[in-house]
Design brief:
Layout lengths: L1 H31 L6 H12 L8 H19 L7 H12 L3 H16 L5 H89 L6 H26 L6 H10 L3 E7 L7 H21 L4 E8 L3 E8 L13 H12 L3 E6 L5 E8 L5
Parallel strand pairs: 1-2
Antiparallel strand pairs: 2-3, 3-5, 4-5
Length: 370
């Protein structure tokens, strides 16, 4: 955007300089055919024309310089109506900038100076009337251009406002859809999982009360039900807030509490991340730990967060039963993880390790996060 602004400013400056050169060349060319034109006349023409190159920055100052130089030129050399071109252009730009009174006053001053140059009354009237018509057109076209530019700005603002309104409506609809999904999940799954967990707890309690050995499968069902409830609550909270419900460290603590051997290592200078990147890191670690708990058995899992200057690397490795020559079929979890990483401009590598086990490695660009 900054490069585009610089190019536009350069083009405007070149256009302004071109306008000044063209008008100055035209007036000088006409003046050259007059044998009485002196060096001071060329200087006055050059000054009046050169001032036009700065009309965007100081339209009133340009109008004053062009009018004073033009009036001095016509009083000294008594040229034809073409001598009024610099003043004409300055009046147009001043009216375009909103200085209508200044433009009218400058035109009146120049016409008064030109009125005293005609050798006869008829020539004075004709030339002055011609210049007056030109000056009136310059003021009118300047005002029309100003109104047109204002109309274009208002149209652009309305378009931006409409776009912003559409984005807000889309975000609102997305939020309403998340809430609907959260309600559906709560109504359909929470009740069923609670019953499973409750029944498993009752069975464990009765077995212990009778002095019987609790079957490991029953304990696993009870533990899995509790973990499922925690995950479901976290999912519902995310659907309602669209924000992560914890940190990778909290996920590691939960995995340890569930019986998974997990180590967390953070290297580099740790710092807060943007919300989208923070959610991505959370989801990558969560999905990788979930897969390790499901498929790696009693494996040891190593979670690493490496903060670099330009990217953050997330590695989750386990030494489970995955074999290098048997690539797993990508499920919904890995597919969603890859989509999330790709959306942030990162890269994701998943697959069995050469020494056994499974590896998840995501490289996420930090951008301006650092």
């Amino acid at each position: 955007m900054s490069g585009h602004s610089v190019d536009s400013a350069t083009r405007r400056r070149l256009a302004d300089a071109t306008l000044a050169v063209v008008i100055g060349a035209l007036v000088v060319t006409v003046a050259a055919f007059d044998a009485d034109t002196a060096a001071v006349d060329y200087t006055l023409v050059a000054l009046a024309s050169a001032a036009l190159a700065f009309y965007q920055k100081a339209p009133r100052a340009v109008l004053a310089v062009a009018t004073a130089s033009g009036a001095a030129y016509v009083l000294h050399a008594h040229p034809g109506p073409i001598a009024g071109l610099p003043v004409l252009a300055a009046m147009h730009t001043a009216a375009r900038a909103g200085h209508r009174g200044w433009a009218a006053a400058a035109g009146g001053l120049f016409l008064a100076a030109y009125l005293a140059t005609g050798p006869t009354t008829q020539q004075v009237v004709e030339r002055t009337a011609l210049l007056a018509g030109w000056f009136l057109c310059a003021v009118v076209t300047g005002l029309a251009d100003r109104n047109w530019q204002a109309y274009l700005r208002q149209t652009e603002q309305r378009a931006l406002e409409a776009e912003r309104t559409r984005e807000e409506a889309a975000l609102r609809r997305a939020g309403e859809e998340r809430l609907r999904i959260a309600r559906e999940l709560h109504d359909s799954l929470t009740h069923s999982i609670s019953i499973v967990k409750l029944q498993a707890g009752v069975a464990v309690h009765l077995a212990r009360k009778r002095g019987e050995e609790v079957p490991p499968a029953l304990l696993a069902i009870q533990e899995a039900g509790g973990e499922a409830m925690r995950e479901l609550r976290a999912t519902l909270e995310i659907l309602r807030t669209d924000e992560p419900t914890g940190t990778p460290a909290l996920l590691v603590e939960r995995a340890r509490a569930a019986g998974l051997a997990v180590d967390l290592t953070v290297t580099g200078e740790e710092h807060p991340l943007p919300a989208t990147l923070d959610r991505a890191v959370y989801r990558i670690v969560q999905e990788a730990l979930t897969n390790a708990a499901r498929h790696a058995g009693q494996a040891k899992v190593d979670v690493q967060l490496r903060y670099g200057k330009e990217e953050l690397t997330v590695c989750v490795d386990d030494d489970g039963s995955a074999e290098p020559d048997r690539a797993p079929m990508p499920g919904i979890g890995l597919t969603g993880m890859r989509e999330r990483v790709t959306a942030l401009g990162g890269t994701l590598h998943t697959g069995p390790r050469a020494e056994g086990g499974f590896s998840v490695r995501a490289q996420l660009p930090l951008g301006e996060a650092g």
